[in-house]
């Protein structure tokens, strides 16, 4: 079976394809140029000269040091790519899709998936890592995507809090899949030595409505009164600049700017070391579900503080992700107090690594998805 993951939002496709290839599947990946830097495989696996990177939404590829494998293919979607219109460029790429038994489409494949099906009469799978939250919008592209979702042989969804949203939209042919984590890369640091002061790392984007960054900042302001040496390290990443500015204003108002450190968005080769260098990772406190930050941190053997809602997770996993559960300012503060105990830090780190190995490793996820691929192809 030849499988293509078409497009690569947040490197979800790359991570699954790598897992599939580890178990011997003839799987390949199509990426789009330009793409946001976080959707490029070289951001996941390469080295980056941040001074040369430029616009993160159309980054300079010469800033990367990375040997692209022959199973990664690049589609140039640049509008200035004379003499082809965007429609003709789509038709050219469809010609390359013909040779695969199955397409697993990431954003924005659903916008053109019905055309693919019309041309070749083949089934396809939609991979949803949260885009369902936005499909209620009435913009033209979202209308096409809704139709693409409706005609998919199966929708793979990664977020445990979104199944009800699919049902509300009328989509019922669903299959849950965890995010695929490369547990060979996201590993604990050997002989980890704690700082003599706590370093709390918050790599999540600043989006108060979806992440609850303000809750963390307020909890930390309380904690530094107890431990003035504590450090909160955050990333200048945001859904809208207003949320980032709001976080910075709140930090100034609470008079803790000298206890906070801001860093730029980091490639994964550096992010893994930032995970390992932390006393704990603080993710999100709103949805009760996680993206990749939580399992990446857990895989590194570092305690994670975030909100995991039991009635969501236990629908799909036998056990809860072992995080210090927090959804309020006081919950977060109490977690900071708990992390002062070395035995607690060690226990959550070890249990987190084991949970990811059993539930989210790229090989585990690849095996789960391969069974579904075979089912879809054989039933066509």
From TrEMBL:
The residue ranges of the Glycosyl transferase family domain are 190-354
Source domain of life is Bacteria
Q: Which GO terms describe its molecular function?
A: glycosyltransferase activity
Q: What Pfam families does the entry give?
A: Glycos_transf_1
Instruction: Write the protein's name.
Output: Glycosyl transferase family 1 domain-containing protein
Q: Which organism is it from?
A: Candidatus Woesebacteria bacterium GW2011_GWB1_39_12
Starting at the broadest rank, the lineage of the source organism is: Bacteria, Candidatus Woeseibacteriota
């Amino acid at each position: 079976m030849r499988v293509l993951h078409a497009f690569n939002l947040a490197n979800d496709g790359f991570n699954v394809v790598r897992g599939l290839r580890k178990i011997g599947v003839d799987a390949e990946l199509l990426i789009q140029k330009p793409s946001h830097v976080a959707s490029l495989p070289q951001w996941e696996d390469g080295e980056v000269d941040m001074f040369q990177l430029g616009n993160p939404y159309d980054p300079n590829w010469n800033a990367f040091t990375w040997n692209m494998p022959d199973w990664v293919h690049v589609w140039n979607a640049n509008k200035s790519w004379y003499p082809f219109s965007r429609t003709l460029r789509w038709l050219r790429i469809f010609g390359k899709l013909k040779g695969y038994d199955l397409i697993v489409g990431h954003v924005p494949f659903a916008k053109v998936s019905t055309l693919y099906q019309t041309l070749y009469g083949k089934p396809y799978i939609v991979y949803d890592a949260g885009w369902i939250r936005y499909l209620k919008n009435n913009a033209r592209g979202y209308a096409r995507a809704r139709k693409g979702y409706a005609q998919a042989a199966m929708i793979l969804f990664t977020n445990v809090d979104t199944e009800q949203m699919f049902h509300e939209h009328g989509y019922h042919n669903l299959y849950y899949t965890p995010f695929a984590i490369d547990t060979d890369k996201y590993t604990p640091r050997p002989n980890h030595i704690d700082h003599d002061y706590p370093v709390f790392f918050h790599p999540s984007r600043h989006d108060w409505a979806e992440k609850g960054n303000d809750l963390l900042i307020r909890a930390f302001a309380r904690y530094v009164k107890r431990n003035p040496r504590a450090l909160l390290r955050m990333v200048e990443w945001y859904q809208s600049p207003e949320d980032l500015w709001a976080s910075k204003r709140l930090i100034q108002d609470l008079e803790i700017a000298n206890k906070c450190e801001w860093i730029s968005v980091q490639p994964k080769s550096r992010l893994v070391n930032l995970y390992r260098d932390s006393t704990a990772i603080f993710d999100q406190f709103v949805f009760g579900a996680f993206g990749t930050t939580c399992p990446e941190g857990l895989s590194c053997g570092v305690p994670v503080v975030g909100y995991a809602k039991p009635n969501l997770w236990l629908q799909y996993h036998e056990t809860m992700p072992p995080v210090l559960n927090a959804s309020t300012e006081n919950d977060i503060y109490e977690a900071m107090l708990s992390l002062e105990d070395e035995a607690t830090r060690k226990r959550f780190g070890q249990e987190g690594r084991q949970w990811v190995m059993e539930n989210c490793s790229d090989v585990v996820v690849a095996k789960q998805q391969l069974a579904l691929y075979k089912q879809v192809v054989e039933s066509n």
